[in-house]
Amino acid sequence: MYDVIIIGGAAAALTAAIYSSRRAMKTLIIAKSIGGQAAMTDVIENYPGFLSVGGIPLMNKMLKQATKSGAEINFEEVNSIDEISKKNEKSIFNVKTTAGSKYKTKTVILAYGKTPRTLDVPGEGKFGAKGVSYCVTCDGPLFNGKNVAVVGGGNSALEGAEYLSKICPKVYLVHRRDAFRGFEYLVKEVKSRKNIEILYNSAVKEIKGGNSVQSIVVEDFAKGGTKEILVSGVFVEIGSVTKTEFIKQLVKLDQIGQVITNNYAETFYPDSEKIRPGIFAAGDLTQTPFKQIVVSAGEGCIVADWVSKKKK
Amino acid sequence: MYDVIIIGGAAAALTAAIYSSRRAMKTLIIAKSIGGQAAMTDVIENYPGFLSVGGIPLMNKMLKQATKSGAEINFEEVNSIDEISKKNEKSIFNVKTTAGSKYKTKTVILAYGKTPRTLDVPGEGKFGAKGVSYCVTCDGPLFNGKNVAVVGGGNSALEGAEYLSKICPKVYLVHRRDAFRGFEYLVKEVKSRKNIEILYNSAVKEIKGGNSVQSIVVEDFAKGGTKEILVSGVFVEIGSVTKTEFIKQLVKLDQIGQVITNNYAETFYPDSEKIRPGIFAAGDLTQTPFKQIVVSAGEGCIVADWVSKKKK
């Protein structure tokens, strides 16, 4: 029987594990892999404490802190959580994985983040941390002085293009449709920038390069045909997916599948204002508008701190 | 004219500066010193990314990140903030310091934390990071297996004593009064622990030692006289002070002087539900119940992210 099972392997989950194990709670981390979106980033310059650090080394350091304090980790994928009994008004949960393992726990922390949508085109995987990025906020400054492309038509893509236009000579904004889905002021701003070239009705078909990205092949649906554009970076800003389908019976989700929480990282029963005892959530799978490593880490601390207080 | 002036020199302030300067906002940090409460800690083991790091080195790394991205820093003490004009519905503030400097800015981020109350007894300063601590959560695990004293009678002192009783052979709880001011369940828990010795009506008069703390001299007000008790650590948990008197005309404070904020780190007008444009707050001087470095850093990120979005 664990005091807490933490599902996820990146900043929110690992920080929660550091704090819960230091509070002498029996802690198990269940994660498919370590690092989440942070692991897709080669150079992180905005995590406080490091002038520059790789995503994978940073996440491995957090893991080491957690295991040093006594947290266990199993590399598996959780596919069900069931409330099996109540004892003195406290819930007990059964957590099962696709590999067939079963674990009992008094509390569950959901902290497995989001997965960015990918383009699924040749070259995207190959240039993973070598010019292809899924986060302008994280990686934008590394492309200072270089030509780049942003793919997408929502606020993230528009904000990304606007920011990059300040530090890059030329920004190509590649969008599948003929109009944007973002805020009007952002659309206006992007259209007013002389060094942003908008490619409407267009999609990236291939990403090419040597050691890193050198060009993209773009198809124009309206006019027909493709052209190759020289860029050093491609920012894919087409949204992300929260895999919360399997917990929708347990906790309240918003329209895009994010877990709804209060300031104390507590969750709610589905279609209810009532707090769901025993299940907590932190990091990018919640509604936080600030999807940054240090924000997730802060939330991981808050959730573990609160779980340890509630336990008493 | 600055885009943002950040008041404070620890995790919340420096992280805000990292993010605001990376967003190409003209940023000035004004701080009396670097590090805040973190700088009082010799060994930090719960900041994610470092198995062990000194408080001062960690804070200096954050400062370096901020200045590398373009943030400026002046070591001064702010003593007034005035709204001097509104331009297109946006405020402009005059920030003055005790040294007589004046700075103009479009936004202000309040992030100068809290100051722990001290005992003001001989030895307290000398053994600053050598056995005297103001945070059980931060430093408790470093005293595993050692005898310690906790000073105070509120929830922090009680929680601290309860936690330490699990990892230390003997815990002395020194309290000025004959009853506690904490939660009933905590008081019960502390009284039930056999290795916690409660010294009521008592105060620490001196902290003694060689290279680090070796004993405390405790006076008993009720019985009279003093005795010396051998301990390796003294945790002073007698509350902290938020110096917000000089901004009470500007923003809404709670009963103990903490700045009230919403989820976006925005402040409110005094005695009002109306958001105060241009003034934001993050970290320990707000109402967050989680006074940890990584939580403050996360809040510093949120505030800077939001300021940069609001600016547009």
Please provide a written account of the structure.
- 2 copies of one chain form a homodimer.
- The first copy, chain A, is of the alpha/beta class and 312 residues long.
- Chain A has 2 domains: 4-114 and 242-311, FAD/NAD(P)-binding domain, CATH 3.50.50.60; 117-236, FAD/NAD(P)-binding domain.
- Helix content of chain A is 23%, strand content 30%.
- Chain A contains 6 helices and 18 strands.
- In chain A, the strands form 4 sheets. In chain A, strands 1, 2, 3, 4, 5, 6, 17 and 18 form an 8-stranded mixed β-sheet that branches. In chain A, strands 8-15-9-10-11 form a 5-stranded parallel β-sheet, with helices on one face.
- In chain A, strand 13 (213-220) and strand 14 (226-230) form a beta hairpin.
- In chain A, helix 1 (11-22) packs parallel to helix 2 (55-68), helix 1 (11-22) runs parallel beside helix 6 and helix 4 (155-167) runs parallel beside helix 5 (184-192).
- Chain A is elongated.
- The mean pLDDT of chain A is 93.
- The A-B interface holds A 11, 14-15, 18-19, 22-24, 45-51, 53, 58, 61-62, 64-65, 68-69, 141, 163, 166-167, 185-186, 189, 263, 290, 292, 294-302, 305-306, 312 and B 11, 14-15, 18-19, 22-24, 45-51, 53, 58, 61-62, 64-65, 68-69, 141, 163, 166-167, 185-186, 189, 263, 290, 292, 294-302, 305-306, 312.
